[in-house]
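Follow-up to my earlier ticket, as requested here are the two runs.
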Amino acid sequence: MTIAKRLREFRTVKRLTASEVANVLDIPVRTVGSYERGEVQPGTKFYDLMIQKYDINVNWLITGIGKMFIDEEIPKNNDSIIQLQREINFSNEEMKSLVELLQSEAGRNMILKFIAVKRGNKEALNTLIDNLQGIKAVF
C-alpha cells in the first residue's frame, strides 16, 4: 500500500473530507488531493502537522508498519510512567527531571527537535544545534 492509499485510509477511519483535513492543517485542499493521488510526495512539514493535529504514526503513514495512531502504540494505563522508568532504568530523580522537562514548553520543543532529527529532518538538526549553542553561551 502506498502513502497515498494510507492517507485515504486515514481519512476514511476518521470520517474526514479532504477539505476538512486541509482546513485543520492550513494547507490547500488541492495539496491534500495531490498527496492522495500520489502525484506529489508529502514533505516533513506535512508529516509534522499530521502528528500535531491527528497523532498519526508517521512510520505507519510512510511504511505501513505499526499502528495508524501514536496513542495506539503507547500503553493505555496509569502505570505508563512507572513502566517507562523500569524500561529505561531511570532513577526517581531522573524521572522527575524528565517529567519536568516534558511539562515545560521549551523542554518539550527541544525533545521534539531531537525526535525530528532522529527521523532525518535536517532543518530540525540545524535548529537544535543553534539552540544548544545558545544554551552553551549562557553557561
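Run two:
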Amino acid sequence: MIPNFVSGTVWISDNLPILRGMNSESVDLIYLDPPFNSNRNYEAPIGSKAAGASFKDIWTLDDVDVHEHGELADRNPAAYAVIEAAKQAHGKGMMSYLIFMAVRLIEMQRILKPTGSIYLHCDPTASHYLKILMDGIFSRGGAVPQ
C-alpha cells in the first residue's frame, strides 16, 4: 500500500496514535527504542540541553488501558497468553508493560510490509518476554484473521 507519510520521517513520543493513522503494509523499516521496564525514574542532568526532562519507567495498571488487555484476547490470543504468563511469573508491573508494548507491536505488524524489518532495542529486564510477545504477534498463528 502507498504510505500516507513522508519517507524518512522520524517520530518522537508515544507512537500509538501515529501508528493507528498509518496505512497498512506501508513501512519498510521500524526501529523501536521503547521504555525498558527498569523500575527506575530518570532525570536529565542539570546543565544538559534536556535539563528538567524526566521519565518514569515504572509500570502499573494505571499506566495502560486495561480494556486493551481484554481486546488482546480476541485480537491476538498468543500475545494475550504471553501477557498472562508474565503476570503469573513476574507480577502486574510486567503485565502492564507488556500490554503497553503489545498494542503497539500489533500496530507495527499491521503497517510493516511483508518484506519489512523491525528492530527492537531492549535490555535484559524484559527482553525474554518481548521476544515471546513478538513471536506471538509476528508469527502466522498468533493473530486472529480479520
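The only thing I checked on run two: The mean pLDDT is 90. Let me know what else you need.
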